[in-house]
Specification:
Blueprint: E1 7-15, H1 21-29, E2 47-53, E3 56-62, H2 72-84, E4 90-96, H3 103-112, E5 119-124, H4 131-144, E6 150-152, H5 161-171, H6 189-205, E7 213-222, E8 228-236, H7 239-246, H8 251-268, E9 272-280, H9 288-294
Parallel strand pairs: 1-3, 1-4, 4-5, 5-6, 8-9
Antiparallel strand pairs: 2-3, 7-8
Length: 300
């Protein structure tokens, strides 16, 4: 490929929690790089997915959902979201097309108004949204802010994603690619391993265990046979939460481990040996070292 014709740029994916940002990033990349779940605020840290469109490399920043922060962890997540949008070539606001325009979306639009980066609007989940209401949402949002373009997509089914990807690529500046063609994310293997296990916590425990948990990868090593050995700690705040994660006779933690192991083996392409331990650590979200481990900056 001629380096003089290459394009490369940063697209910041922002929005309210549960708008489908991570699913959209995965769809644009063409494979899973960000964890997803029906639970809001699944994404905690800034993660970059790398997508290719002809001679253009798109650096897709999947940011945590922007909401009103209450705890230190919340403040760090929101700070990571806005930091991910800094100096982007395009800021893409993703809105749940079914849920529509609520106070969280309006607050984000007000914040976007002061930013210099170009902005586009992406109405997601069109496969489940009422079409007349969807058009009404688009009109209301463009009345509140003059977006440069509006796209209607379903990250889940892929409807409209390729057209939007081509339009994003056309907006990127001429520049050499920042990453090799076969790389799909900037996340380290340690971080990916922790995220996959945390995804299983969300998917399997639902409302039983809210946001009072974190996953820390203590050891990550390659064995001589090419397989990977991973040791992780699941941190919770109370003994009752530890009991929920373990399940009766340890059945729940075994299922979490089995599914996380299978997903990691699929993503990494090698056998994975995963060992999970549940630890009660009251106030874990005030541990500076843990923030570094999960890729967040410490905020006061």
């Amino acid at each position: 490929m001629n380096i003089e014709t290459q394009r490369c740029g940063l697209v910041a994916i922002v929005g309210a929690p549960n708008a489908g940002k991570s699913t959209l990033v995965n769809a644009l990349v063409g494979q899973k790089v960000a964890i997803v779940s029906p639970k809001a605020q699944t994404t905690r840290t800034r993660l970059m997915g790398l997508a290719i469109q002809d001679e253009t490399q798109l650096l897709l920043v999947d940011t945590p959902g922007i909401f009103t922060p209450e705890r230190r962890l919340d403040r760090a997540m929101v700070a990571a979201a806005w930091d991910g949008a800094k100096d982007a070539d395009v800021i893409a606001l993703v809105v749940d097309g079914k849920a529509g325009v609520g106070s969280k979306v309006q607050a984000i639009i007000e914040s976007l108004a002061a930013r210099p980066e170009p902005k586009i609007l992406i109405l997601n989940k069109v496969d489940v949204a009422d079409k007349p209401r969807l058009l009404g949402h688009a009109a209301k949002l463009n009345e509140a802010f003059a977006f440069e373009e509006t796209f209607f997509v379903s990250a889940q089914t892929g409807d409209g994603v390729e057209e939007m990807k081509a339009a994003l690529a056309a907006r990127m500046p001429q520049a050499p690619w920042h990453f090799p063609e076969d790389q799909v994310s900037d996340a380290t293997d340690r971080m990916l391993a922790a995220e996959v296990t945390r995804e299983q916590l969300y998917l399997q425990l639902h409302a039983e265990l809210p946001y009072a948990s974190a996953v820390e990868t203590e050891k990550y090593s390659e064995r001589e046979d090419g397989s990977v050995e991973i040791h992780q700690q699941i941190l919770v705040e109370r003994d009752t939460q530890r009991a929920i994660v373990l399940g009766k006779g340890g059945t729940r933690i075994k299922e979490i481990g089995a599914r996380a192991r299978a997903e990691l083996s699929r993503v990494m392409g090698v056998p994975v040996h995963l060992y999970l331990h549940v630890k009660v650590k009251p106030g874990w979200e005030n541990d500076r070292s843990l923030y570094r481990e999960i890729g967040l900056d410490w905020v006061e």
